[in-house]
Write a structure and sequence with these properties.
It is a single chain. The chain is 26% helix and 34% strand. It is an alpha+beta fold and 283 residues long. Strands 1, 2, 3, 4, 5, 6, 7, 8, 9, 10, 11, 12 and 13 form a 13-stranded mixed beta sheet that branches. A hairpin with a 2-residue loop joins β2 (46-51) and β3 (54-63).
Length: 283
């Protein structure tokens, strides 16, 4: 039986919630308010495929600029898998990103398929899970991120992400059910982190810091900002050994793993300062 052609369109802001809901069903545990922030990154970068009136496939192809993009939310409804619909929306997404260095965080078992589309492995990201314990020694260098001018936050992130993403970042650090903190060193921003409520527990992401010691201080402050006993998650690039050690020092356990892959050379991001990535869906 010949496969039907999908009707593929750019998602409306409301349709992004479909992708997030499907991600939750896949066990990816999205944040409660992720859809709104993701949409700010690229309103044209979310595609949905329909058969008649039924949504059956999604993909996000967020184009940060003409050089760099991030692919995520590649999901086909379970009952429609194996029928070619995933490849249809995949090809539409890659067409939108022509010429970009495309990144993704793929589930490990799909790595071979991504290689067939020109992606090369860079490193693994490990999702660690632990428990919030509410313990925190006072640290005068940690401040609410909202106290700083947004330009200072955007300037700090600039070398840590391959492209500017001001609209997304402004939304991400101010979303509901979240806590965003910065840490100062000689009165200058030397790291920041966000912890947000998810379908289950809370995720820390990003967690950026100039040194392992500053990262640990931020991590403890973020961990202490949520109710004791809640599950917390941190997505760590495994080539940052200090970040791996931080998670292990606080008895966090690996719970999920992705392969970070690129279609061109990996960006020259100083991963020694990336102790937790922002999101598997958007980089």
């Amino acid at each position: 039986m010949q496969e039907q052609r999908l009707t593929i369109k750019v998602m409306s802001k409301e349709e992004v919630n479909i992708a997030v809901e499907w991600a939750a069903l896949e066990g990816w545990n999205p944040g409660l308010h992720d859809a709104h922030s993701y949409y700010q990154a690229d309103p044209h970068g979310f595609l949905i495929g329909y058969l008649g009136d039924e949504a059956v496939a999604t993909i996000s192809v967020v184009k940060y600029n003409s050089d760099f993009a991030f692919l995520g939310f590649y999901i086909v409804k379970p009952e429609y898998r194996g029928k070619g619909y995933g490849m249809q929306i995949w090809q539409a997404g890659l067409s939108y990103l022509k010429g970009c260095n495309i990144a993704l965080d793929g589930v490990i078992e799909q790595q071979t398929n991504y290689k067939k589309s020109g992606f090369s492995f860079a490193y693994n990201n490990i999702r660690f899970a632990g428990i919030a314990d509410g313990q925190l020694a006072k640290n005068d260098h940690i401040i609410e991120l909202a106290r700083l001018p947004f330009s200072a936050i955007a300037d700090y992130e600039k070398p840590l992400f391959p492209a500017a993403r001001a609209d997304f970042l402004q939304s991400w650090i101010s979303q509901a059910n979240s806590h965003a903190l910065g840490i100062l060193d000689n009165d200058k921003l030397a790291g920041y982190g966000v912890i947000r409520a998810c379908r289950e527990g809370f995720k820390i992401g990003p967690l950026y810091a100039n040194t392992p010691q500053l990262a640990e201080s931020l991590f403890l402050a973020l961990k202490a900002s949520v109710p004791t006993g809640e599950t917390i998650y941190l997505d760590v690039p495994n080539i940052n050994q200090a970040a791996m050690a931080l998670a292990q020092r606080y008895s966090m356990q690996p719970s999920f793993e992705t392969a970070r892959m690129y279609t061109q050379q990996p960006p020259t991001t100083p991963l020694s300062k990336v102790f937790g990535i922002t999101s598997f869906e958007i980089g």
